[in-house]
Amino acid sequence: xxxxxxxxxxxxxxxxxxxxxxxxxxxxxxxxxxxxxxxxxxxxxxxxxxxxxxxxxxxxxxxxxxxxxxxxxxxxxxxxxxxxxxxxxxxxxxxxxxxxxxxxxxxxxxxxxxxxxxxxxxxxxxxxxxxxxxxxxxxxxxxxxxxxxxxxxxxxxxxxxxxxxxxxxxxxxxxxxxxxxxxxxxxxxxxxxxxxxxxxxxxxxxxxxxxxxxxxxxxxxxxxxxxxxxxxxx
Length: 234
Prior knowledge:
Blueprint: E1 6-15, E2 26-27, H1 34-44, E3 51-62, E4 65-74, H2 81-88, E5 108-129, H3 137-149, E6 158-159, E7 161-165, E8 167-171, E9 185-193, E10 210-217, E11 220-222, E12 231-233
Parallel strand pairs: 2-5
Antiparallel strand pairs: 1-5, 1-8, 3-5, 3-11, 4-5, 6-7, 9-10, 10-11, 10-12
């Protein structure tokens, strides 16, 4: 059964889709990445053992501008979801990150962020069931559409960083956008995803970076399928 095109119009005040090659400061791509777009669909409806989202197209509805932000951050990283769950269940003592710790690896620091301002996109994606769940295609699509139409989500979608919330609205695939940004730009190699999308994912899975050669034509970024030779897996 051919997947039904699911379309979301998303917008927000700020966004940051960080380039992985810039390690210390955050510098955003000029457009949302397939990984961040998939994350927005996941925030609304996801069943990792039954299906995955395949982003197919990104329409840029408004030409965003770069804005420089300086933020206070901690140097340490948050633990895995599994560790946090153990803290919540009382199986392990919590080990919070202390902002004013004297340790060089966990203290407070200021970092520059080159973010985007006033972003608006129309995201196209399809539900791709895993083997054994193909007969649930229509049911999965119907559940997503009900949730998205009512503004429901598992957690607040965001544009790259949790501090930058993404607001969304379900639209019909054939609906004409009210406005489009006429952008022609070669972006070169762009981050596709940070996980292996060839199989059901687990919370403890190690990252697997993939890239693709991105090109915006008339305000549209076409996204190849993950199993396409156009996607380079590390």
